[in-house]
Design brief:
By secondary structure, this protein is mainly alpha-helical. It is 71% helix and 0% strand. It has 18 helices and no strands.
Length: 446
Amino acid sequence: MSTADVTPDERKEAPLLLDTEPPRTLSFSDQSAFWLNIGVSLLGFSGAAAVLMPVGHPPLSIAAALLATAVGTVVGILMVAGAGAVGARTGAPAMAVLRGLFGTKLSYLPTAANIVQCIGWGVFELTVIALGVSALTDGKVPHGLVIIAAGLLSTVMAIWPLRVLHILRKYVTVAVGIALVYFTIQLLRQPVPEMPGTSWSGFFPAVDSALAVSVSFVPLAADYTRHSRSVKSAAGATVLGYSVGQGWCYLLGIIAILQAGGDPDKIFDTFLGVTAGWAFFAVLVLRETDQSFANIYSTAMSIQNLLPRVDRRILAGLVGVAVTLLALPVHDFSSYANFLYLIGSVFVPLSAVLIVDYFLGRGRGFWDLDQNSPARPIMLLPWAIGFVVYQLCNPGSISWWADFWTKAQDAIGFHPGWWTSASLFAFLSAALVTSILVVAGRRREV
C-alpha cells in the first residue's frame, strides 16, 4: 500500500500494513505522557520488592534501594531511548527495524522472542488488574469477569493506538499524577521503618531488577517512536517520562512494602489503608490497561513483521483474544522476578548490538528494511556473547536453567561477586564485540 492509497482519516492513525509510511503526529508531550503512564504500574509497585530484597542477598537500606532504582531505571531507559531513536529515524516498527541489523529472515528470531514476551507481559498485566480490582472490592467481582472486561478494553485500545496516546496525555496522565502525589503525601506522613540486617551486597542485583523492567520495552519502543515528529523529541520524552514514572512508582512501592513490615503481598493493603485510598487506587487500576494495550499492540506489530500484508487491526483483535483467554486461569504472578531476568538476558545485549550498529556502523549508510533484506548472521555473534555473559553473571532462579549456568561458572572458574551487574556487563560486552565488527567492516570497505 502506498501513502496515496490512505484516506485523510487513516493518516491520523497507525498504518494498517507494514509498508505504509507512518503519520508523524506525536508531540513531545504526547510521548512523555505515554512513557510516564507506562512507567507507573501496579506490577512495578510489587516489583519494588525485587529491588528492596534482592534474591540471595540481605535486604537493602532505603538509600541503597532508591539508588539502585535510579541507576537501573536511567540506564535501562537510555537503552530504550536508543532503540526508539532508530524507530523515529526509520519510521519502522521495532521488529521491522531489526531487518537492517540481521536481515529479514534472521529478524524473525528476535521477533518470535518478542511475541512470547509481549504475550507474557499482557497476561501478567491483565492478572494484576484483576488482583487490583479484587483488593478494591474484597473479591466480590468475579476474576473472570474482570479479565474479560480488561482484555476487551485493552484490545479496543490496541486497534486505535494513536488516538489512545492523545487521550492519555489529555486526561489519564493528569489523574495518575494526582494519585501519585496523594499517595506520596499520605505514605510519608507515617514513619518509614528500615528493615533489619540491611546490606549493600545486593546492590547490583537490585540494579538489574530495576533495569530489567525498563529494558523490557526495548523491543516495543519503535512501535510508538516511529510516529514522533522528531528523533530528539522521541528520545527526550522516553527518558523523561519513563524515568519519572518508574522512579516514582518504585519509591512508593518501597515505602509501602516497608510500612507493611517487609511483606510485598500486603502492598495493595497499604495503599488502600490510607484515607480515601480506594479512590486513587482505582485510578491506578484503570490506568493499568495502557500496559496491557501496549503489549497487545506490540505483539500485533511483531507478527506483522512475519505477515506484512495482514491488517494490524485483525492481528490486534486476535492477540487480544489470545491474551485474555490465557489470563483467565492465572491468579498470581509469583514467577515475576524470574520472568524479568529472562527478558533482560535477551534484550539487554540486543539493544547494544542495535544501537552500536545503527549509529556507528551500517545505519550510517544503508539500513535495509526491505522484505528481501539479506541475512547478516555475523551480527548474531555479539548478541549471543552478551546473552552468555548475562547468564554467567546472573543465572536467575529457574532451577534447571540456573544449574546449567552454575556448572558453566565452575567450568571456567568465574563466580560473580557483589560488583557484578549482569545487565551492564552484557550490554558492554555486546557493544564491544559489535564495535569490533563495525571497525572490521569499515576496513573491508576501504
